[in-house]
Amino acid sequence: MKLWAFILKRIVYAIITLIGLTFIVFALLHVGGNNLLLAAYLNPRLTGPAKQQMIKELIQRFHLNDPVYVQYFYWLKALLTGNLGYTNTPIYSGPVTTAIALFLPNTVMLTIIASILIWIIGIPLGVYSAVRRDSVGDQSVRVFSFTLYAMPIYLIAFILIIIFGVELKILPFSFPVNPMLASSLSWYKGGISYPTHIVLIDALIHGNLIVFWNALLHAILPSLTLALATVAGIIRILRSSMLEVLDQDYVRLARAKGVPEKVVINLHARRNALIPVLTLFGYTVASLLGGAVVVESIFDYPGIGYWTTQALLSNDVGGIMAATLIFGIVFVIASLILDIVYAIVDPRIRY
Amino acid sequence: MERYSEFRYSLKIFFSNPTAVAGFIIFMIYVIDALIMQFDPRLLGVKNPNVLQQNFVNPIPLPPSLQHPLGTTYPGIDLLHAIEAAIRIDLFYSLLVVLGGAAIGATLGIISGYIGGLLDDVLMRITDIFFAIPYLVLALAVGFVLGRTYESMVLALIIVWWPLYARYARAQTLSIKRTPFIDAAKIAGVRDFKIMIKHILPNVLPPIFVQISLDLGSIMVIFSVLAFIGLIPNASIPELGYLTSLGLNYLQSAPWTVIFPGLAITIFALAVNLMGDGLRDVIDPRRRSS
Asked: In whole angstroms, what is the distance from residue B90 CA to residue B33 CA?
């Protein structure tokens, strides 16, 4: 199969998956009753006659008195035009699209930092574990990754908090930025920063290094928790694929030629061993996003996961509906990109 | 006779693996604890395994002592007794999730793999869609619609988990379908339904069981996470995630309130994983030699 044909096929699959995703969300909304769809699109600030008027308009717009498939069509149309309804939670109340613009960048930032940490922690450990197979070091790396794999993510967070926050007192573990400091900033209002909505980057844009440093310190524990919760899978896959690669003829040849061991491992073997890790990274993205929901609510990190839990706890239909869609869409796109990258790196996958 | 010796050989392989045996023993301790809680909780000093014994006279968490070996958590709950009782509930719901998911997934996977064609394509796309949503988010959505109770969470997790088993069962079915004995059965005029039940199912079940034991730990972890973030409103039911969340406000002064319930889950998840790895070695002959 040609590369473009493979990419086209994957894009078609991704679109089918996305349509299926909207179908599931709509089915869930429908199981809960027609008024759920209404609740998602009703502006929470409206009261009295204005509210009744709005309900009438919405019934007409979404054709709520027509059969289900007609409703689905009109709902999908609203989604495609970017109308996701309203959310009403203690941390934010207003249109869902604004909420996403406020919270999603923070989560993306968190997962990017976590991904970097995963590479920094996971790859050396995985390679070391394979090269020093069955040594004491290898055994301890395996016990370490096995234990991390078995731990609930909140336990990892608490252990980190107890070590770095309570005992050593070097890292802060709640509030995105020191609230005393934040309240004096003109661009930081109600827990939300402007213009990119990521405190870390906004502080740089505004040239405020103190806030930048503060925000960086606050981002360390949540992203480290997220990284440790997902790194175990990477270490395990890398170890086994590295062992496989180290056993291959070209590595033996390189060694026989007298290439230094460091070069053999870092240049010849590691590159090929990383390919399976890349595929696994798609699943890592999924578990990062899932883990973000928990991590963000433990650390009060103003990301989309925090908003999702808040929406759930305050029975906010619009928030839950949108969050399910957003998480699904982000994951589908991430795995599409990874699949394409993988197909470019390793042509065998296209068949 | 031959079957019997094969079984004994499998047992021998399993019990020659010390970590698998350790995992098995810990798993059995949890199971026995759950059974004791079910039938005679007083044996372990628990009065009522369905409700947490609160003590508002002395609500502040106490450190571990002779009277409370694991300390207490807010409000005055003895952690050892609470964890003993919670294991029963967590184990029960986790088992419900994996068994339910495996039953649905294996059935659909076998049918889809055996019949193939358009049905197979459609089913695989459907599993793709379920894989595309992080389990936690889908569970949130399902829980929201069906009501936030333990039962609806079990249903939500089954909805999230069956596609995984469907994939395994399908892959296994595809490889068995190609073997000559299935062709022989077809030529002999055995009906498709009977082939699926009598010839394919017995071959699909062992790897599914291995997967169940590998997943049991993850499911318990996920279940506790759902309870921990407050997804399931809790009327003082002993559940490990909820127990952990009780100690949240005392994290700085009384770390044992969050560490011990969390450890109870970690140890269980570790044990069933080790056990599952051992079982996989038994089933997969390629792994036996190494």
From this structure: 12
A-chain residue closest to B138, CA distance: A324
**Minimum distance, in Å, between the CA of residue A319 and any CA atom of chain B:** 10
Q: Is A28 in Cβ contact with B133 (below 8 Å)? A: no
Q: Is the pTM of this model over 0.90?
A: no
Quote the minimal CA–CA distance from B33 to chain A in Å: 20
d(CA A263, CA A273): 14
- Name the one residue in this structure whose structure tokens are 């919405």: A58
Nearest to A24 among B129, B134, B230 (CB): B129
pLDDT for position B100: 92
- Could you give the C-alpha distances from A211 to A176, A183, A207, A219, in angstroms and in order? 11, 11, 9, 12
Average the pLDDT over each of A146-155, A274-283, B165-174 and give the range with the smallest value.
A274-283
Q: So what's the pLDDT on residue B290? A: 43
Any CB–CB contact under 8 A between B258 and chain A?
A: yes
How much of chain B, in percent, has pLDDT values that exceed 90? 3
Provide the ipTM.
Answer: 0.82
Interchain pair A293, B229: CB under 8 A: yes
A151 closest CB neighbour out of B128, B135, B266: B266
Across the interface, of A32, A147, A293, the residue whose CB is closest to B136 is A293
Q: What is the maximum span of chain B, computed from C-alpha positions, in angstroms? A: 76
Please tell me if residue B75 touches chain A, with a CB cutoff of 8 Å: no
3-state secondary structure A60-81: HHCCCCCCHHHHHHHHHHHHHC
Q: Chain A neighbours among B 214-253 (CB < 8 Å)?
A: 217, 221, 224-225, 228-231, 241, 244, 251-252
Q: Kindly state the tokens that stand for B166.
A: 């469907």
Considering only residues B193 and A125, tell me which one the structure prediction assigns the higher pLDDT. A125
CA distance A90 to chain B (A): 15
Look at residues A293, A80, A94, A108 and name the one whose alpha carbon lies nearest to residue B138.
A293
Structure tokens belonging to residue B56: 């508002």
Structure confidence by residue, pLDDT tens digits, B115-127? 888 888 888 888 8
Query: Is residue A179's pLDDT more than 70?
Result: no
Distance CA A52, CA A259 (A): 79
d(CA B236, CA B251): 20
Find the DSSP H helices in B71-191: 79-115, 117-132, 135-146, 150-177, 180-187
pLDDT band at B99 (very low <50, low <70, confident <90, very high): very high
